[in-house]
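Practice set, problem 2.
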Amino acid sequence: MSSPSPVSGDARDDQTGRFVRQPNGRVRPLSPHLQIWRWHITMTASILFRVTIGAATVGAAMLVGWLAVLASGPDAYAQFLSCAASPLGLLVGIGLTWVLFSFLLNGGRHLINDTGAGLTVPSANLLSHIAVWGPFVLTAIFWIVLFASGKVSL
């Protein structure tokens, strides 16, 4: 007696490559790939949020280093201030400011979404645009004010 023929559409008989056999033997659909998905702003906001979490960790480590220098005495702190006032130090400061604003705006987007609001496509896109582009605007305004007030100079 012959074995029954596979049912049409059965994942075990897939000839399209859309299914994969996992190490445990189960057949599952292959996950969508970037070639399948059209890039959109909510993907950018989501990826940016993950990047800023990593960058905020680096910023926290730098904060601990600043506290260590502060505890090391006035000479060490004066040397730190000269490094922070250098062009590279200002670039790091501007980058960390951008990270802070990005983290805050993306966190706000997540908070709004967690309440169940802002989940329609237009509102999700609007919140994502704010979270992606807002940090650039806020960082520019923040540093323009610092330079204009004389708090920071080159």
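Problem 2, part (b): a different protein.
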Amino acid sequence: MSDKELASAIHCDRICFNYTDFLSASCKKRWSLVDAIYGVLPIFGMVTRKSAHSLQASDEHLKELALQIISTQVSDEINIARLITLAEQQHISRFDIQLPYPLSGQQLDAIQQEYRKPLTLSQQGDLLCVSIPGQSH
């Protein structure tokens, strides 16, 4: 699976995560004990494995971090909230998530409750547009 499939090219200063491809890659991943711990406690993994040399993450770096936190063992809402947290930690304030289907209003509310900080979520079909206020690009 290529990097472009997992975190597609930046379009107009906006990254697009392909959520379905992340789930597929997560299913195929061979998990070590450390990976399993990071999967259960993703914030620990994001903090300890965060690259100190670059404030803006490359596509490869974002892919690696996202694969650490996406899990088929939790709901889509939790996974999406984890992706939003990852983006915030990487100083990404606006990005899109390509989903296999549009989310319901209830699912969008669950994402906002899980993330627990102000953010704007909007949908255009199966594309979820995320904007985190107060973040610089």
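Answer key, part (b): Helices lie at 3-6, 19-28, 33-40, 42-48, 59-69, 76-89, 105-115. Confidence is low (pLDDT under 50) at residues 1-12, 43-57.
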